[in-house]
Write a structure and sequence with these properties.
Length: 273
Amino acid sequence: MDSLQWITSGHARLAASVSGQGTPIVFLHAGVCDRRMWHAVAPRYAARGRTIAYDRRGYGLTRADPEDHAQVADLLAVLDALTDGEPAILVGASAGGRVALDMALLHPARVRALVLVAPNIAGAPAPVYDPPVQAQMDELRQAEAAGDMERVNRCKARQLLDGVLAAEGRVTGETRTLFLDMNGIALRASPGGQALEPAPAYPRLADVAAPTLVAWGDLDFPHVQERSRHAARTIPGAEAREFVGAGHLPSLEDPAGFAALLDDFILRRAAEG
């Protein structure tokens, strides 16, 4: 059973769900979710390692006073508090993948392996949208300009949960409700101060030393798919997985299918501990 633990980093109290013992496996959520996006995935690995899923600043239960902060420093605080100094397997989705990748470049000794799911990568080329996708982006920008956060949330669900290349409403039920709740919290969050970013990772992908698996869904933004393929080609020895029929958040819409494609990589790396 998960225990909820609190980790201090600067003026933040980071909420973390922790379960199991052994090789640490840290799950980093997307920028439209919180640690709950992993609630159906992380327990699969608790018998083989110590699973940790935490809320970054501005998400979920984490609370923080406004201050300049670095996401990698917050992740280091989590590792220092919960891993007994063992290198961790980092599983990062979207913006969580960006944090995981930055950690692997800045602190390679702390990272046993990387799983990057449709990762956001600092320094990647700016996207160019074809007309149907551009129309979706225009609708999102209009909602943001109007300050209509409920509409913004619906647009994000359409783009990132359903997938821009799929029909709207493809993902329904509890999964959609959870997405709207997680992203709704993020949209309502107070400003948390300036995020301090490290040097862009995109030009340094060839410097990643950790064993890496890169995954993406074939219904996601085309530029995210290409960025993921580029990372898989460029990171030395990286493995690649495409989730057929999945959008930007395959672990949320199909936890069992997601885990089935990742099990071999994660359990192999955990066993190496």
